[in-house]
Amino acid sequence: MYLDITEEMDKTFETLNDVLRITNTRGMLITMDSNSRSRTWHDKRTNGGGKKLEEFLISKQLFIMKEDSEMSTFQGSRGSSNIDLTICNCKLLKEVQEWKISEEESCSDHRIIQFCIGQYNTEQTRNNFQCKKYIIRVENHKNLKH
């Protein structure tokens, strides 16, 4: 999910509320380019967008899967920050394991974030998790059905 820094966060919160309503009692995980900074997710500072997003996540009992790391999730020409988030609800909180920022080249100014969901067996490949996946855009989020 991408949060456009030029748009009001209320649209994003409306989209997230719809996703929460659809997933209801199921496990839910969102990867997000939040364009928001917060010490809560181990950034150097908190900005206005970060504060609003923090408050929303707390109010919805959502959790940020972010380990403190010397590497940041974003490294661009104007600096580094931790704007890329992995967010889950309480149903998946214990299932998300081995979260880390990869040192692998990403061909982007955003670094690759890796994690496992569920009981991970080293004999399995990391890419065999079967689930519904949604690409959410503000203009079509109301069309989601489960």
List the defining traits of the structure above.
globular; 146 residues; two-stranded antiparallel ribbon; 18% helix; alpha+beta; Deoxyribonuclease I, Chain A
Q: What would a concise description of this structure say?
A:
This protein is α+β, with helices and mostly antiparallel strands. It contains two helices and seven strands; from the N terminus they run αβαββββββ. Helices cover 18% and strands 20% of the residues.
> Which strand order spans the largest sheet, edge to edge or round the barrel?
1-5-2
What's the helix count?
A: 2
Major β-sheet annotation: 3 strands, antiparallel
Give the overall pLDDT as a whole number. 86
How many domains? The number is 1
CATH architecture title: 4-Layer Sandwich
What is the H level of CATH, i.e. the homologous superfamily?
Endonuclease/exonuclease/phosphatase
Question: What's the CATH class, please?
Answer: Alpha Beta
Oligomer: single chain
Give the helix level as a range of percent: 10-25%
Radius of gyration of CA atoms, rounded to a whole number: 15 Å
Estimate what percentage of residues fall within beta strands: 15-25%
Please trace the helix and strand order, writing H or E for each element. HEHEEEEEE
Work out the number of β strands.
7
Distance between the termini: 18 Å
What is the 3D shape? globular
Low-pLDDT residue intervals, each spanning 5 or more residues: none
User: The CATH topology is what?
Assistant: Deoxyribonuclease I, Chain A
Structural class: alpha+beta
